[in-house]
């Protein structure tokens, strides 16, 4: 303990800032995800999905999306999240989906069994979570993925 205190005193004596520990965004605590979204300027409504796991409804650039929580134990203590958006009227063929997936590193797209076009992006928030800044960066990636996908779906 003395060595640690001496090290802190040395930092202070040299005028070096001791970095503050940033609040982490963690899937185990859905409220931190809600807070991070709101701090980033996004709406965030915490609810539950059909199996009782946490789910957040949000939007970016005028398009709605959901954040699903995965790896949960008894509908809590989740590990990862998935950004998700679905589109009823895709103008894409299977070849278009394959091309889109091959050209986009973040996010994946597919046509589900009901004919709904889906785009998703997974984010691992386990083992310590992400800083606010890194989480916001992931949300910005997601907004870009959705925009690119919508441009492909509707050809805009």
CATH fold naming: Yope Regulator, Chain: A
Q: From the 3D coordinates, which CATH architecture would you assign?
A: 2-Layer Sandwich
Reading off the top of the CATH hierarchy, the class is best stated as Alpha Beta
> From the alpha-carbon coordinates, what is the Rg to the nearest angstrom?
20 Å
How would you describe what is shown here?
This protein has 156 residues and is an alpha+beta fold. It has a single domain, classed as Yope Regulator, Chain: A, CATH 3.30.1460. The protein has four helices and eight strands, in the order αβαββββαβββα. The chain has a six-stranded antiparallel β-sheet with strand order 2-3-4-5-7-6. Strands 1-8 form a two-stranded antiparallel ribbon. 25% of the residues are buried. The model is unreliable at 4-21 (pLDDT under 50).
Compact summary:
This protein has 156 residues and is an alpha+beta fold. The protein has helices at 2-13, 30-39, 94-103, 132-154; strands at 24-25, 45-48, 54-60, 63-70, 80-87, 108-111, 117-124, 130-131. The protein has one domain (22-154): Yope Regulator, Chain: A.
